[in-house]
Amino acid sequence: MSGNKESRLILALDVYEREKALEIAEQTAEYLWAIKVNWPLIIGSGLDIIPELKDETGLPVIADLKLADIPNTNRLIAGKVFEAGADYIIAHGFVGSDSVMAVMELGKTIIVVEMSHPGAREFIQPVTDKLIELANRLEPFGVIAPATRPERVAYIRSKLKDGIKVLTPGVGAQGGSAREVLKAGADYIIVGRSIYASENPRESARRFYEETLEV
Predict the structure, then answer these.
(1) Is residue 3, in this structure, part of any structural domain at all?
(2) Which residues on adjacent β-strands are paired with residue 63?
(3) Domain count, the chain
(4) Residue 1 within any structural domain of the chain
(5) Which pTM value belongs to this model?
(6) Is position 161 annotated as part of the catalytic site?
(7) Quick one: CA torsion of 181, 9, 212, 158, rounded to 10 degrees?
(8) Active-site option among 20, 66, 108, 165
(9) What are the residues whose beta carbons fall under 8 Å from the beta carbon of 122, sequence distance 6 or more?
(10) Where residue 167 sits, what CATH number does that domain have?
(11) Mean pLDDT by groups of 10 residues along the chain of 215 residues
């Protein structure tokens, strides 16, 4: 499963309704590298939305579950989600290497090392260095870093091993700039509301896509 290989844009499809999700995905697919689904869409439409999105668009699907449980529970959840067709799962690193490895043993994993909202400064940012160390030791597909703080993206990128991708949520509605965060070292930007909640999702996706090509 491969998306637009030139694209560095991931759509965060945080809606509840199946039909709406499929419609937006179809409208924007040509500009995307992948689609990220979170709990709202999975709760609203069920796990079957994952293979439906893949069939509709031909794009990889990232399941943003932010798994943060003991190894056995992480393994049970990840097993079902990978079985449904997810290409990647996002997991928290703060629960420790054994819990992350339980997901990685089943498929490609992305580890959260820092989040994009203001509250991330309270508890996650102070341990980001240790989460980067964890990522360097386990070598997941990628890590999550905050597009809302490009200086942190640059710092995280400077500490990561080569080959580990940096995916950055927070572009658009949260205030992050695609250009700034890509210049800071991000491999992919993640955009949600500024695309799916816009009057013309296709046009919005096109603008973000073209912006990524300029960096």
Answers:
(1) no
(2) 37, 89
(3) 1
(4) no
(5) 0.94
(6) no
(7) 30
(8) 66
(9) none
(10) 3.20.20.70
(11) 77 97 98 97 97 97 98 98 98 97 98 86 83 98 96 97 97 88 97 96 97 88
